[in-house]
Amino acid sequence: xxxxxxxxxxxxxxxxxxxxxxxxxxxxxxxxxxxxxxxxxxxxxxxxxxxxxxxxxxxxxxxxxxxxxxxxxxxxxxxxxxxxxxxxxxxxxxxxxxxxxxxxxxxxxxxxxxxxxxxxxxxxxxxxxxxxxxxxxxxxxxxxxxxxxxxxxxxxxxxxxxxxxxxxxxxxxxxxxxxxxxxxxxxxxxxxxxxxxxxxxxxxxxxxxxxxxxxxxxxxxxxxxxxxxxxxxxxxxxxxxxxxxxxxxxxxxxxxxxx
Length: 259
Known about the structure:
Layout: E1 8-14, H1 21-29, E2 36-43, H2 49-54, E3 61-66, H3 72-80, E4 87-90, E5 96-97, H4 101-111, E6 115-125, E7 131-135, H5 137-143, E8 160-162, H6 164-169, H7 180-191, E9 193-205, H8 212-217, H9 221-236, H10 241-258
Parallel strand pairs: 1-2, 1-4, 2-3, 6-9
Antiparallel strand pairs: 4-8, 5-9, 6-7, 6-8
Helix pairs in contact: 9-10
């Protein structure tokens, strides 16, 4: 009997990424695993991103166009409504997935039913795709998974998780405009297992003028949200003494940064 392959939904939110969008979408079209859908949400782009997205005729590319920008968190949650797959993978519209990205993560989740979310290492690249360095988050995570409690060591574009998670823990927390991914990971980690694969499965661009990180970098928002999440970890996890010290130190550093 032929084994039915599961559908993987790749969720991509788009805002003014005309320089990168074509390569990002094509990296999904070129995946070695073919049973996927790309849920691509244009979040009110004012550049040529909308017209670039419209040019893709593959029926697996599900296109949605918002008239105005509703924010990253709201856009992610909106996109989740259209994801029909057993698994949901994230790819930002300025990043590029390696050919075996979906297959590698899908295989892990299918074989390890006690793992609910899987991430990977990645290559950090410049705007022009020039390699900068390999980020080996798997080493940190394998040595001490609970380091996630005081530092975000997972890149959102490397994440794949079981769709059932949304029904169990909810979507991305609306009160976080920047750190919604980290807030989501902590909710997952509180109840379920997370794994980071050693393979570098995505090329991720360093912050550039059209990236969310760059746009928020000059505001206090990033630091404020990081403080909120450190406090959340204090309240929601049973911490060892060493973890309390690390969290307290991290919290103090963030507060001093605001002063």
